[in-house]
Design goal:
Helix content is 41%, strand content 13%. By secondary structure, it is an alpha/beta fold. The longest helix is centred in the first third of the chain and has 15 residues. It is globular and about 65 Å long. The N and C termini lie far apart (54 Å).
Length: 373
């Protein structure tokens, strides 16, 4: 994927400046640093990942921009109806649904959420207006759905003429009022022709629609103690944001930020991925260790990922796993896997040691009965 080219921003406002000769200045010649806000939330991992990926690319391109990531849930907590009623934030409720596969009827729940947002439209706009006045910027970007009307309306009222951009992090919109709003001030960045067509159908002209080559993608490459490999990867020119990590004890944190895991079919990797609710993309062929070959069969049997014959086809594997329907199915299947071995094994050992009820309240673990055929 080619990095998002931001040259189109020169068409969105005058803040790139014009010299006396009338020739637009490029980002490399701008005198004052420009401020850019990126609004995200943590309902699912993709929105934060998209925001961080964009921030990383802009930093790598050494543009004279100050990027600030703004967590929308933190900003609007005081208007979170679900939190007032249950103590649970909307994004937490959404993540719980995904992790447990409770997605049946999600369309109806989505419409209820959108109706609630409409009820709180004016308070949301007023709240956001106050925030924008306190935190001025030259450009506002949203990588979240549902709230773009409120974000756009409040921004245009405080800073008329300054661009507001929605980056659709899905392959397509789910109208009405999901990503694209029928407001002329909204610029739309789409990763597919489908999404661009939806923006046109919503009434946006071509000057407000930008089609990119795919969606923002960021790689976290964990090399362990292979310092030579890590050095080679860091020195390599990449066309996307890449974070190379050597040996670390913080893999669980990296996995928390991921959407899926690419790796060998080792039991440790697959098990940790299941615990972290991540689909897997693994390889299995004649070079795979014999004791690990069934792991690949298990992944296919449970429908929790993709098995490749060779990582030479990893790009195609990534494209497949990122198909919205495919990824949703994998996440649902992963959520159904429950691995409590680390908690149950001590109980088995205690039983073998002749200890009874070693941990009160624990369900007793009984030996597996062999089926007689």
């Amino acid at each position: 994927m080619e990095p998002i080219e931001h040259a189109w921003l020169t068409n969105l406002s005058t803040w790139h400046g014009v010299c006396s000769s009338g020739v637009p200045l490029t980002y490399a010649t701008i005198g004052a640093m420009k401020r850019v806000h990126v609004v995200f939330h943590d309902g699912g991992g993709g929105h934060r990942n998209a925001a961080v990926a964009l921030q990383t690319v802009i930093s790598q391109q050494q543009r004279d921009w100050q990027i600030e990531l703004i967590q929308f849930q933190d900003l609007t907590d005081r208007l979170d109806v679900l939190r007032k009623l249950t103590g649970i934030r909307i994004q937490q409720q959404y993540n719980t649904m995904l992790q447990n596969g409770w997605t049946l009827g999600s369309t109806q729940l989505l419409r209820v959420l959108q109706a609630t947002i409409r009820v709180f439209h004016r308070p949301l706009v007023n709240l956001l207006e106050r925030f924008w006045r306190e935190k001025p910027a030259d450009l506002l970007i949203s990588v979240i759905p549902h709230f773009n009307r409120q974000i756009c309306e409040s921004w245009a009222k405080v800073y008329p003429g300054r661009p507001f951009v929605t980056i659709i992090t899905d392959l397509a919109d789910f109208p009405p009022r999901f990503w694209i709003e029928p407001v002329q001030e909204q610029y739309v960045i789409a990763g597919t022709e489908k999404a661009a067509g939806q923006a046109r159908a919503m009434g946006h002209d071509d000057a407000h629609i930008f089609l990119t080559a795919g969606l923002p993608l960021q790689l976290i490459l964990v090399c362990g103690r292979n310092e030579e490999l890590a050095a080679k990867l860091r020195a390599r020119p990449w066309k996307m944001p890449v974070h190379v990590v050597g040996f670390t004890k913080e893999v669980h944190k990296l996995m928390r930020a991921a959407d899926f895991l690419i790796g060998k079919p080792g039991p440790g990797s697959i098990t940790e991925a299941m615990v972290r609710k991540l689909p897997v993309l693994i390889e299995c062929n004649a070079w795979t260790l014999p004791q690990e070959r069934y792991n690949a069969e298990w992944v296919k049997e449970k429908g929790v990922g993709i098995v490749l014959k060779s990582f030479e086809n990893v790009a195609e594997g990534v494209r497949q796993i990122l198909e919205p329907a495919t990824l949703a199915e994998f996440r649902k299947n992963v959520s159904a896997q429950e691995n409590r071995a680390v908690f149950e094994i001590p109980e088995v050992l205690a039983k073998l040691l002749g200890e009874s009820n070693s941990t009160p309240g624990r369900t007793a673990i009984t030996p597996v009965e062999t089926e007689v055929r």
